[in-house]
């Protein structure tokens, strides 16, 4: 079974631009979560989508948004980029049934997208 | 709010030896998961082991085992017979059941010395 894939792997943008990152979960996984990793702040949760609905959101400004499609693929968008948005953006998928059945909530990560804002 | 603390920023171990990485967490919840992930230089986050809070038995995966002390809110990782490929950043993480919102510690950089 193929793992979580993220595209693009590397991205260079300038301040003020916007960017869209894509994530394809493991086949059959319905939940997709996004994380930002920086040297200063470490790993921080951005948001989680399940069945095309955002269920959970971290403490990030509204410039960060996302969506999930019917095939569970997800995109995240960052508008009006700032230098501080430079980071590794990680996507993770899990089975995550509606009932939250124990044993299905392990998240598996993709390789990440390295975003550099100049 | 949930917090995860890893008090050892860096550790090293000789190849074939055993090393233990520490992690403590704070939560008021009763049902949750705990995880150890490793992140090698490739930056790919790889699941090492997980523990369900309702299970008293400590999880084991080959050379990796945990010591889960629920009352003390402690979750340490023991790596036996350390191998060069174990060199990586190790993150302890907490997830409330069904939330899919991992809270990570700051990580422990482990170096296996040949």
Please describe the structure with a list of short key phrases separated by commas or semicolons.
heterodimer, A: about 120 residues, mainly beta, 7-stranded mixed beta sheet, about 50% strand, B: 6-stranded mixed beta sheet, 4-stranded antiparallel beta sheet, 12 strands, globular
Strand segment count of chain B: 12
| Biggest β-sheet description of chain A | 7 strands, mixed
Percent of residues in helices of chain A comes to under 10%
Number of helices of chain B: 0
Structural class of chain A: mainly beta
Query: Span between N and C termini of chain B?
Result: 41 Å
Shape of chain A: globular
User: What characterizes the major β-sheet of chain B?
Assistant: 6 strands, mixed
Please, what is the average pLDDT of chain A?
A: 92
Shape of chain B: globular
Strand element count of chain A: 11
> Would you list the SSEs of chain A in sequence order as H and E?
EEEEEEEEEEE
- Outline the low-pLDDT stretches of chain B: none
Describe it.
The complex is a heterodimer of chains A (118) and B (114). Chain A has 118 residues and is an all-beta fold. Chain A contains no helices and eleven strands. Chain A has strands at 5-7, 10-13, 19-24, 31-38, 42-50, 53-57, 64-68, 74-78, 87-94, 108-109, 113-117. In chain A, the strands form two sheets. In chain A, strands 2, 4, 5, 6, 9, 10 and 11 form a seven-stranded mixed beta sheet that branches. A four-stranded antiparallel beta sheet of chain A has the order 1-3-8-7, with no helix packed on it. In chain A, a hairpin with a 5-residue loop joins strand 7 (64-68) and strand 8. Chain B is mainly β and 114 residues long. Chain B contains no helices and twelve strands. In chain B, strands 2, 5, 6, 10, 11 and 12 form a six-stranded mixed beta sheet that branches. In chain B, strands 3-9-8-7 form a four-stranded antiparallel beta sheet, with no helix packed on it. In chain B, strand 10 and strand 11 form a beta hairpin. Chain B is globular, with a radius of gyration of 13 Å. The termini of chain B are far apart. The chains are: A mainly beta (118), B mainly beta (114). The A-B interface holds A 31, 33, 35, 42-43, 45, 48, 50, 55-56, 58, 88, 90, 92, 94, 96, 100, 102-103, 105-109, 111-112, 114 and B 33, 35, 37, 42-47, 50, 52, 54, 91, 95, 97-104, 106-107.
